[in-house]
Amino acid sequence: MSQFKYLELEHLLRKDIRANHFLPSGKLPSVRELCQNLGFSKATVLHALHRLEAEGLIFSKPKSGYFVKTVTPNDRLSPKRINPPAAPRDVTVPAILKDIMTRSAAFDILPTAGATNDANHLITLNRHLSKALRSRPTQKALYYNDSSGDMRLKDAIVTHYRHRSLNQDPSQVCITGGCQHALFISLMATCSPGDTVAVESPAFYGVLQIMEQLKLKIIEVAADPEEGLSVDDLAEKITEWPIKACIVSPNYATPTGAFMPEKARRALINLAVEKDFCIIEDDIYGDLAFPPFTAEPLKKFDPNGQVILCGSFSKSLSRDLRIGWVFGGKWHDKITQLKLVTQLSSSESIQQGLATFLEEGHYRRYLAQQVNTLKQQQRELMMLLDIHWSDNIRYTHAQGGISMWIELDESINTQRSYNKVLEQGVIMTPGSLFSASGQYKNFLRLSYIHPLTEQRQAAVKKLFSVLLG
Amino acid sequence: MSQFKYLELEHLLRKDIRANHFLPSGKLPSVRELCQNLGFSKATVLHALHRLEAEGLIFSKPKSGYFVKTVTPNDRLSPKRINPPAAPRDVTVPAILKDIMTRSAAFDILPTAGATNDANHLITLNRHLSKALRSRPTQKALYYNDSSGDMRLKDAIVTHYRHRSLNQDPSQVCITGGCQHALFISLMATCSPGDTVAVESPAFYGVLQIMEQLKLKIIEVAADPEEGLSVDDLAEKITEWPIKACIVSPNYATPTGAFMPEKARRALINLAVEKDFCIIEDDIYGDLAFPPFTAEPLKKFDPNGQVILCGSFSKSLSRDLRIGWVFGGKWHDKITQLKLVTQLSSSESIQQGLATFLEEGHYRRYLAQQVNTLKQQQRELMMLLDIHWSDNIRYTHAQGGISMWIELDESINTQRSYNKVLEQGVIMTPGSLFSASGQYKNFLRLSYIHPLTEQRQAAVKKLFSVLLG
């Protein structure tokens, strides 16, 4: 019986207990059900239950099974939703945060890569890229690829999205140099300097930097750490302050990992149509839904091209490719023009090699395995947190993606501890990065994209020992 | 005796005669000198001289040699310099020109690539790229490369520039996604919407498109087709209308191939320091100086970081790499920030493979051969033009680069003939592309970057038969 196994089950049960999952009766599933449904051995299940009983969290009734002892409806595990200031403001990202952002882009708490996962898919990918480099090299050296991208790659991306219930025409796709580039040209296409853009709070810091450079004003909109953007808050704010665009990550947003319910998605699109603003959907985590889920893009519900979808392979396959895409909706022509103006074209060889990789099904096969790895790494991280700091932190439990949003006691300022943590060789991503108005001082983001090696476990411990004092 | 040989000599002599090169005496070099200095056979030299004599351009004096018969100081071979309008204006690029620009980016008059030059250097390059892809793939997949670029590549680029008398520190280089990207972030770093930028006329159309998107105003500055930007015209204009930046290609600018004399370069930099504007140097053709020349960048004379140099491998090595660079001077930090905001980072594998290619001397070896190829292709194109249309056109004779600027009779409108030429399967680059104020209607750009195959010769003939009626 591995230590991880019973700790994992203990974690799952504790989480369900706190979330009042077993109400109204308070009865836990039977030992046999736990074995069968979750795939644990009987010994593991009994060990976990005995530990929770010893802790006083559950009790057993003879011939009836286990019941929740203390029902604590207010003991919510998730971090708080914060209401950001209402009025539009300029975005000014302090230089110190820009440094921190750059280091945080790898989502790793270690400054240099430790052990990493299996790389068979990358060997296959690189074989296809090399093959593409060898094909018609002179032609590629002397002629630019179509600015909007390679037709085969566009086809392959569109085909991939069909598995997520989105039907688009390849002629409506523009290939970019990654998702940041996609977001940049989408904001340039839809807004002019001085315009106001709504952004969920907490927000992806890359978007804040784009807005600063494009001289756009921001309205931060409240977002639930588990369910994402509050459409009610958005609707209320834009009555007073009209917006040109709203940037949203409905699927497993960074930093929270939130997933927007379908009802909220439909409400958001209706609002965009009614008030005539553009929705820019950041779908970079959309492929990373944990089984059995599949995450449909918001754009699926888009009636008339009001949604611009931006995506990339950087989080789901490789950051080395520098390939992203935009489904530009109404703004497709303008976006293609901006692709040309900002970068002329993308590498034909890279696009062709990647297209073959997609066409042959390697990407889908890799994803199917990768989401299980991520889910497992998420569980391990949650367990580590539960074992050591369950009384001191609240965190999000996402159903996909790579991000966990952690709330600490209000007396703790994560950004202020940044350098002290860095001296320990640990890279923290403080919550203040994700706000344009100084929120989230007692928050931080952790990621489970990297395996929780002993070295990383030690780093997490160092991190919290500095933060919690 | 090949036909090309005597036609080539005939062309050279005719050009020198028209340029009054043999004044004051009017005496041509002796037959022996022509043989020795230019490497032609005696038969070729005599044949060419006899043809020029028959044409009435030269005459022989017994025991003295050949002399110029008609000295025509006004019969200048080069196209006219045009004085663009003075006041700053918004840039609006018509949609039809955007289509034409996209097709013209390959510099080829054929829509699909015909025969191309030797590709050994590309095989070597691609071998290095593939090797880099195989090195530490997981690391590269999971971690972003430093936003400002790979240190080895920056070192290699700086080392390369030393051969052109420019000494820069690698820490002052930012790697970009090509020269267009470099120009884009340089303009973003130095200007705000509504600011005025000086651009030489004729101008690179990619810059006009950037300025349109960034909502910058343009002052077009007169430029000589052979000697580039007129610093006098610039100095006069900015007295009345202050500028934030001036974009200039001192080395073999497209479309003219002009090369700025050193005196003008120094005057330009003095003016920039005095009037406090930024010079953005587009150095994309700087490596393509024809022997025995080497082209020093303008930035060599830069006293205090007033010049931003933008370059790329797209014209000199491969358009498939999508790698360019900026030496940002005073604006380096801001430019690096904008690289991050617009594209996050560049592919580490591509940068590393390219760095090895440079370090091992392959790029310099290839360039040494390529400039001779370009020079030869330029000669062939000039001969073709001289044989068929010497009375109807004026063109530039650049000492490097890939562009020739051609002036036709004022009654001819090249843009209006664009579709008629296209129907013949020929892609023309009309002069109007290179102006923001409707100039150069009777101009066009031709390139000699591609071998002048029979197919391309036929295309040039079709082009002028449509244009000249």
UniProtKB/TrEMBL annotation, chains A, B:
SUPFAM superfamilies: PLP-dependent transferases, Winged helix' DNA-binding domain. InterPro entries: Aminotransferase_I/II_large (IPR004839), HTH_trans_reg/aminotransferase (IPR051446), PyrdxlP-dep_Trfase (IPR015424), PyrdxlP-dep_Trfase_major (IPR015421), PyrdxlP-dep_Trfase_small (IPR015422), Tscrpt_reg_HTH_GntR (IPR000524), WH-like_DNA-bd_sf (IPR036388), WH_DNA-bd_sf (IPR036390). The keyword Cytoplasm does not apply. GO terms for molecular function: DNA binding; DNA-binding transcription factor activity; pyridoxal phosphate binding; transaminase activity. Signal peptide: none annotated. In the C-terminal section; belongs to the class-I pyridoxal-phosphate-dependent aminotransferase family. This is PLP-dependent aminotransferase family protein. It comes from Marinomonas arctica.
